[in-house]
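Before the break, one more example. Copy the sequence into your notebook; we will annotate it together after we see the structure.
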Amino acid sequence: MKKTTILTALFCLLLSVSAVFAQEKAANQAKTTNFAGNWELDVSKSKLTGRMPIESMTMNVTQTDKELKVESTTKRTARTEAGDAKGMEVVNGGARRGGMMGGMNGTQTVTYSLDGKETKVETPGIPGADATLQAKFEKDGKLNLSSTRTFSGQMGEMTAATKETWELLDGGKTLKVTREMNSPRGTQSSEMIFTKKQ
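Here is what the structure looks like once it is written out:
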């Protein structure tokens, strides 16, 4: 009789613990924000650094339970030999190259795993400069994306890292991307405001 009572108590305890975990999991899933959509950068509302002379940028974002895929197309502002009116500089007679998502002209596709694990991808056109990507949701639904690249340069091995925080505003019509880029050239911070295209 005593053994039956103990087993019953243990069974009830296990059920209670399982219920708590299930509620916690459901709560966390409810806070997972869906960033899918076609987004267009509003340059006038964004705060871009002098090293990010972007004329236009669009992002096609697809999202599943397992991954976030970002296809970005960027057109950068043309620069003259003397630099433009905003003081954007020219390096070796040409424009500086950006090393992260949206930093160069053309289209770039990046896929993040949404299980919290790091993934490694090759950097197109830069042999040996593989990138490590990671995505994590915060409890308030914001998404943190990080990208780290290590590559060889004239001064030896160098590392460039980008951290982004994605946040939906205006009922999902606006995407705010706060970005911090760290490289041997220093730290750049920017705030990019995207509008959802219909």
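The chain has one domain: 35-196. The mean pLDDT is 76. Try to locate both features in your own notes.
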